[in-house]
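Continuing from the previous page...

OK, I double-checked the sequence for Flp pilus assembly protein, pilin Flp against my notes and this is the correct one:
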Amino acid sequence: MLNFIKNFRNDEDGAVTVDWVVLTAAIVALGLVVGTSVKTGATDLATDVGADLTAQVTP
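Thanks. Re-ran it with the corrected sequence; updated structure tokens here:
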């Protein structure tokens, strides 16, 4: 029983798994933030281009 407790205390596999989960979550969150930022910028740019093209049309 004492040997089992020593092995359990020294086992770090779970800690490595937690590290990878936290790192993966951070990368996913960063990707979502960047994606949202790019989407907002692209929408604004498309609106500006549409407005400029509409202004260029001669009646």
